[in-house]
Amino acid sequence: MSEPDTSASAAAVPSGDAAATAAAGAPVRRGVRGVRGVRGNALAEITAFVALFVAVDLLWLDGSGYWDWSPHPFWIIVVFVATQYGSREGLIAAAVSSLALFAGYIPAQALSQDFYAYLFTLARLPLLWAVSAVLLGELRMRHIRERDQLRSQVEQARERAGTIAAAYESLNETKSQLEVRVAGQLRTVVSMYKAARAVETMEPAHVLTGAIENVKVVINPQKCSIYLLSSGELEAAIQSGWHRRDRYKRLFRDDHPLYKEVIGRARVVCVADPDDEAVLAGQGLIAGPLLNPDTGEVRGMIKIEDMGFLDLNLSTVEIFRVLCEWVGAFYANAQRYRRGQLERAVDSETQLYAEAFYPRIEQLLRAIARRAGFALSAATIVVEPPASLESTQRAAIAGALGAAVEASLRDTDLAFERAGSDCAFDVMLPLAGREQAQMVAERLLGEFTARLPRELGELPAHVDTRVVHALESTEGARG
Asked: What does the alpha-carbon distance between residue 455 and residue 118 come to, in Å, rounded to a whole number?
């Protein structure tokens, strides 16, 4: 006889161990339903109890239906069922007990009793059982309703607590994501500034290196590359993220579809377009021309081979298009500046003649020396800096030589940058023989060493002299 799992009127209510299980949040096993919502276990308990006592009366007692017992044994089942299950089951227990009471034996009317007293004697126990079942059952029903209400409040409180905890976790996660995003945006801004500075240079190689950094910062690809036009072909110049197992082409000829679309039509192709996917043919996700927007000239291609799925969207493609034009403009300006530097006559920083003029000036002075009959010598100053020398220190060396030339050379002497080196210089010395050239070179070397910065004062340097044209009409060869 365990406590039922549901209320007597409507919903199932856990009881006993089931109630403890339900309070702990575990699933509750529903009680067995009988006829019209009456619990089957209550019916079973009533039937078993009544049958047991009737059998005992018939087999071992006198079969009088316990009329002489006070209190009657059937009070047990009526009170128990009413307090355990409620008024409905209690009334059923009273009814079954009454039937069992009158089924086997009915006491005879006494001589001193009238008919109504006899009826009251017969109806007294069933009426008391019915009244007790209603009173005790309704008390039980009130307890059940209060318990259900409290359990419902506990469940609502648990749900509210769960909702608040979930909201807190969501808010905490959102806060963490925002912190990461803000920190990432800060790093991105700093990285973009540094990458933009790398692009805004007049050295073509530095422009390409800065372009790769810009693409990595802005679009965040796993693999990207830059191709340059060379002899009518696209050749890979810079790659980022490529592995040995990757099979990306390093050379695209003019008959390749990707070359025709990117270089021929100056068009950005994206794998999201089925036609462009066939053009890319597994060689990347996005490719665009390295385009100079001022002239429309295409100088190469930027290609993204791999990136995150969520990063590939319409905004990314438009940003990539802008990057291609931006880098193309800077690369074209850097190449134009580079050509101008190669064609310049005098370096604006060192005041030395450009290396490209040295062969022509040497031939011209040699021809004049032969015709006019004067000596012509040359000196070469070589500084041997370590490999770790920075660009600013190399510029300081060139500046020191320019100052030394102005201080120690004559107006007729000419100083040139040495071809292929920024730490070696040639000086043409008209009207100077070997000895005079050696004296001028040593004086120039002394002035040069004195003007070097303190941290470069110990750099090894030497000077070599040679006679280009002697007064005896003998010619020397340039060493």
From this structure: 133
